[in-house]
Design goal:
six-stranded parallel beta sheet, Flavoprotein-like_sf, ODP_dom, FMN binding, binds flavin mononucleotide, single chain, 12 helices
């Protein structure tokens, strides 16, 4: 059942309350998500995006209740990814000759995913689609977050359809940003940005500046996941500019893994050292194997510095530590300091392995790593405290 937004625009997406893992298991979605699809009825009728494949049948049937599919003049695909295009094969079976407007790169991604020769019409920045009283203007948005992404601006209604930009994995029956819990909303928006868009900070900034320079009146931002920003849409744009500018808060995060608590004891000593040196800084301690990885990455995103510790296992680090370091490398965090620590029994390679990986991932190593032979004794605890003091001191 569609939700009417304006005389001409109806939300025809799918709210997915139960989704908990997205992109395989790369991204946790504790609050579910929505796949937003929009139906525009002016003199012409067009559909913007579809929904994920498992909901394809439901989507097409609901769309048929809204309109005679044969009256659909075009399908506009802002981004080829399966969560937005999954229902396309089913829809196109019913309307095989309907043109699909998308970027050149989306022709490639959609052909690669579905191997169909639909009637593709590639568009570029500045190209327009006249709907009647209103017009859609396309703006390519490469790497926000795929090479195939574009935005579409609808004049008359003053709506920016922003694909995954400004999105959140946040299922709600409320549809609009002003009707939901603001803390939850901004936490989910930040988690989305931290985990998906961080590598593309520069492109986010450039794209937002390009759009702001167009001086378009903006009443709503319609993203492809989560709520529609209708109240003060400029607020999320400002947040994006802040987040894209190598965001950090006055926070240090200590992340450790442990088998027998030795590395944890070292981590606690480090936390005490940080608090001693700088009581105002927020210090957070997490067992990285037991905390949601995407929440951890969001904490790293907020941090000015991180310290990572692992027990030494078979001359290396634990798999959970390795997994998180791999994800951090992919996100290309900038302007953050780091340090490493480990507990060991005989060879003690873990701290060195972590240090190398942090450095290769672009972190600035502000302190030399420390190690504790077995459980930390008094001297090792003192080394932990001193590491914390030195790390906190490196920001002065
Ligand atoms: C399966 C296993 C493999 C280990 N491999 C190494 C190793 O290669 N080198 C080393 O120095 N210690 C090794 N250790 C010893 C641990 O690093 C040591 O017990 C350390 O104190 C564990 O830290 P934790 O108390 O934080 O778990 C190993 C321990 C286990 C259980």
């Amino acid at each position: 059942m569609g939700k009417k937004m304006t005389d001409k625009v109806t939300w025809v997406g799918k709210t997915d309350w139960e989704l908990r893992h997205f992109h395989g298991d790369e991204l946790s979605t504790d609050k579910g998500t929505s796949y937003n699809s929009y139906l525009i009825r002016d003199e012409k009728t067009v559909l913007i995006d579809t929904v994920w494949g498992p909901y394809g049948r439901e989507f097409v049937e609901a769309l048929e209740e809204e309109i005679d599919l044969q009256k659909l003049d075009a399908v506009i695909m802002l981004h080829g990814e399966s969560d937005h295009s999954g229902a396309l094969p089913l829809l196109m079976e019913k309307i095989p000759d309907t043109p699909i407007y998308c970027t050149n790169n989306a022709v490639k991604s959609l052909k690669g995913l579905y191997h169909k020769d639909w009637d593709f019409h590639p568009v570029k920045t500045g190209d327009q689609f006249s709907l009647g009283e209103t017009t859609l203007t396309f703006v390519e948005a490469r790497m926000l977050h795929w090479p195939d992404t574009m935005f579409a601006y609808m004049s008359g209604e003053n709506i920016l359809f922003s694909s995954d930009g400004f999105g959140q994995h946040y299922a709600t029956e409320m549809l609009y940003n002003d009707l939901v819990d603001q803390n939850e909303l901004f936490q989910e928006a930040m988690k989305y940005y931290a985990n998906i868009l961080t590598p593309f900070n520069k492109m986010v900034t450039a794209k937002i500046k390009e759009i702001l320079a167009m001086e378009l009146p903006l009443d709503q931002i319609c993203t492809s996941h989560g709520v529609i920003w209708r109240k003060e849409p400029a607020k999320i744009i400002e947040k994006y500019l802040e987040w894209a500018d190598d965001y950090q808060e006055d926070q240090i995060t200590v992340l450790y893994d442990t088998m027998w608590e030795g590395t944890r004891q070292l981590a606690e000593a480090i936390v005490r050292g940080i608090q001693q040196k700088d009581p105002k800084t927020t210090v957070k301690l997490f067992n990285l194997a037991k905390t949601d990885k995407n929440d951890l990455l969001t904490e790293v995103f907020r941090s000015k510095g991180i310290l990572v510790g692992s027990p030494t296992v078979n001359k290396g680090i634990t798999h959970a530590t390795a997994g998180l370091l791999e994800m951090m490398e992919g996100l290309s965090f900038k302007k953050k300091k780091a340090g490493a620590f480990c507990s060991y029994g005989w060879s003690g390679e873990a701290a060195g392995v972590i240090e190398k990986r942090l450095e290769a991932s672009g972190f600035d190593l502000a302190v030399s790593s420390i190690r504790s032979l077995w459980n930390p004794d008094e001297e090792a605890v003192q080394n932990g405290v001193e590491l914390g003091v030195a790390f906190a001191g490196s920001f002065k």
